[in-house]
Amino acid sequence: MTKTGFLAGASLLAMAALTPMGAVAQDGQNTIEEVVVTGSLIRGTPEDAALPVDVISAEELQKQGSPSTVELIKSLAVSNGVLGDTNQFDSRAQGSEGSGSVNLRGLGSNRTLVLLNGRRMAINPLAQAGAGIVDTNMIPGAAIGRIEVLKDGAAATYGSDAIGGVVNFITRNRFDGAEFAADYRYVDGSDGGDYSLSALWGWSNDRMDVMLSAGWQHRGELDVIERDWANRPYLENPEGGWTAAGNPGTFLSFTAPAATGATLFRDPQCATLGGTPGFSGTTPACYEHYIEWDNLVEKEEHYQVYGQFNYEFNDNHKLHLEGLYGRTEVPKWETTPSYALLANPTPEALAGAGALAGALYAGRFYVPTNNPGLVDFAAKNPQFGFLTTFGAAYLAPAARPFLVGGNPMFDNGPSRGERYYDFYRFSGGLNGTVGGIGYDVALTYSEEKGTRTGYDTLVNRLELAIRGFGGPNCNRSANTPGANGCLWYNPFSNAIQKNGITGQVNPQYNPAVANSAEVTRWFFQELSTTQKARLLVADAVINGDLGISFPGGDAKWALGVQYRKDWFKSDYNDISNSLINPCINTPDFGVTNCPAAQRNGPFGFLGVGTPQDVNNDVSAFFGELQLPIFESFNVQLAARYEDYGGAVGSTFDPKVSARWQVAEWLAMRGSVGTTFRGPPLAQLSPGNITSLQSILGTFRAVDIGGNPNMEPESATTYSLGVMLEAGGFKGSIDYFSFDFDNPIVSEPVAGIVNAVFPNGAGGANNCSNPAFAELVARFTFNGGTCSAANIARLQTFYVNGSAVKTSGLDFMGTFDFGQVLGGEFMMGGTATWVREYEVDAQAVAGQTVAPAFDAVGFLNYQTTVVPIPEWKGQAFAEWERGDHLLRVTVNYIDSYIDQRTTPFIATPNTNNTVISGGKTIGSYTTVDMTYRLRLPGETTVTLNVDNAFDEDPPFARLDLNYDPFTADALGRTIKLGIRKAF
After folding, report:
1. Bridge-partner residues for 456, per DSSP?
2. What's the first-to-final CA gap in the chain, in angstroms?
3. Distance between CA 543 and CA 535 in Å, rounded?
4. Which of 346, 468, 371, 427 has its CA nearest to residue 140?
């Protein structure tokens, strides 16, 4: 990517006016001599503050208690829907635990371009299926001197992905000496709390400088059960991590002696083991709490090593080299002990079960009469004596192999997985002047590799184990269940000793029929994927004087070219590779010719993946003019042509920006232009990724397919701002507007489900309506019958969606009161008001699946938009006297509405009780306090108390009982930090 254009020479006063919280931008120990502001290619004059850019200095970060990158970005008034906190129940966050993002304006993390020293970084290949999101946890925090946030569309300058804005992390300049820092944060209930270490070293002389940094950050695991508000009873929040597909489960058996009727029954130990007996429609069910096995914060380890080298050959030619390695480890990601069974065994797994069983229980998990668990269960529950005649059916999707008792494979605890990320980046460039023409050429290579693992049930192997033919050493040809190395699986509650979370004991537990880790390892298999994104960028910019003078000065120009090469590769282990195991009956029976609609692999819940190895070339030409028409009026013109080749094609995007100094105390700025984003490489390729999403109150598998026919998305952007400076006051108000065409989105799950099943789980549907045939074909139904109760999975695709328009106002201001009680006292704040976020109606397969709506003030669950509170902001008061600094910050997030209908309607499974809590997600106000003391010997001690009054996050009708995109789960935290310079 073209190196950030630098508006050189902007005064510190101008920077302070743009800096949130009134920070004075400093570069480590040295004050910045030449301020550079993201948004232009031209080294300009102090008057060129035509764009809304916020500058956050290293000094300002220290005053805030040195927040992590995720914490900082999440706190920005201009940011909504940030990835970074654990949220495995939302498809936009699944699989990317341990990584971070930036999401300006709530337009999507893939619409904010993240730069390091003005140049691009490879994307996180696991986040949103390679959607184009840079992992901010790889940023070398110890080396950062300031962060510049451009809150305007900038594709005319930077190209694709800058459609919603730019965040540029800029390292320190000519740092001399050494600096060590450490901190520890106490988090109530966390396993060891959070802590970090960093080291920085630099040296310079007249011609060269070098800087090296290293950082390590640790996050302690925080269980859901450590927060009462996150662990609510069923009748307080049925969506709060409760499922009707549990264990103990629901069974079907035919009654003796004529098998003319069937009996549906839930396991009688449901309530004893902590479940809530109820009904799913008319089917008896045991509602069980899977959320208790999960974490609010996963254990995370983050490492970064960074180095940079600058050398001045002479006054006209300079060399810059930099290298970065980052690694993130999430070694023990935890989730429910097993997932729901959304698929049924095939005839091969039922072969030899007997003609009667095959006739009565075809397409179900069949429990034979000789299953030791059934024999013991029937003896202890004589009301189910008919089981000894016909056996039973283990219902899918109303059951799963393990839940309240934990998974034997993991010491009767939750199922576990891992996430690992490795990031490499190298950049080298030359800049200087030749014959009065400035030049800047660079070559940057970066890559990030992500590995993700998890576990799920092999459908046919579970059925074989239920019939006594389980285990890796089973000789099925001998046809003797439970013998010749064959193992049993028992689906009944007598296999469960106790509730693994609450400790509630099962009086009917029989260790003789308990399930072993050995048989579990055989049918509960690991899925893993390793994905890699690589990026090579070569760019060159020349700039100089145009040779035309205006009353305000000489006109300047810049021209540039850029070449980008993107690669994306994904690999899967054999059992989860669709090319190796496409069908339920592939692994154990070698069948590969199942119907296309059933080619979801051998697992009960998760789908298989298709390997990808794709690449693309992008070429760009761009230019910029800076026209100082008058001393008080400056205009910038920019344009960029970018060619993706192939079916994607090319785009041309111009932009005009201007700044007018109306009076000494008043200035105005504004811009208008077009901006764009090319389709992410991974989403252009055919193949599916599987997300886990709630469908009519129950989690189901939703496959999201790539689409080679997508076009670039584009937007027209406007901004208009007023900047004020009088006495001790500095402030600004900026209007922003983004008008999108063809936004790249995944089809809305809730809209498709509601179109086919407009009355939810009951009443009339469109299963037989010919106009909805294509939409109905997107669903996979257990038993092949279209009904809400039989939904197993849903197929969606990435598409160019309906038009979007958002607009609003950004506010920023500081007031310096001067001396108060012998120290400098300052107050200030930032806020964003979102006026509108209008999304046009969206159609899929010829049917309107989502009406037009305004997303402002709504949760926007399962739509194409993240939560958008109408107001968000911060206010602070800061007093500094000598070596002492005290700062209080108030953070505010406005209330918003969960616009869903179904969760708030009385249904049989809630005993006809209307549960209204969570319809309004309340406003969220927290207070942070920081005290900083400078000690002799260049030592600084900081005490930071976040959420000082221990406010719980507002209740939301979601799995974790709060909105992880918006609020914070930690409660009051206390952080002690020390920094020593040499």
Report:
1. 525
2. 36
3. 26
4. 427
Distance CA 345, CA 352 (A): 14
- Three-state SS across 834-885? EEEEEECCEEECCEEEECCEECCCECCCCCCCCCECCEEEEEEEEEEECCEE
Residue 512 identity (one-letter amino acid): A
C-beta separation of 222 from 189 below 8 A = yes
What are residue 705's phi and psi, to 5 degrees? Answer: -100, 150
Query: Which residue reads 């970084």 in tokens?
Result: 121
- Measured CA to CA, the distance from residue 651 to residue 163 in angstroms comes to 13
Q: Which domains are present in the chain?
A: 12-224+297-335+611-678+712-743+801-981 (2.40.170)
* Torsion sign over Cα 662, 816, 144, 79: negative
CB-hemisphere CA count at 13 Å for 284?
Answer: 15
In this structure, how many other beta carbons lie within 10 angstroms of the beta carbon of residue 237? 22
Asked if 460 contacts 349 with a C-beta cutoff of 8 angstroms, the reply is yes
Dihedral sign, CA of 148, 152, 158, 161? positive
For residues 25 and 15, the answer to whether their CB atoms sit within 8 Å is yes
C-alpha span between 969 and 952 (Å, rounded) = 7
pLDDT tens digits, one per residue of 783-833: 778 988 788 889 999 999 999 999 999 999 999 999 998 999 999 999 999
At 563, which amino acid appears?
Y
pLDDT at 7: 28
At 186-232, the pLDDT tens digits run 999 999 999 999 999 999 999 999 999 999 999 999 999 999 999 99
pTM above 0.85, yes or no: yes
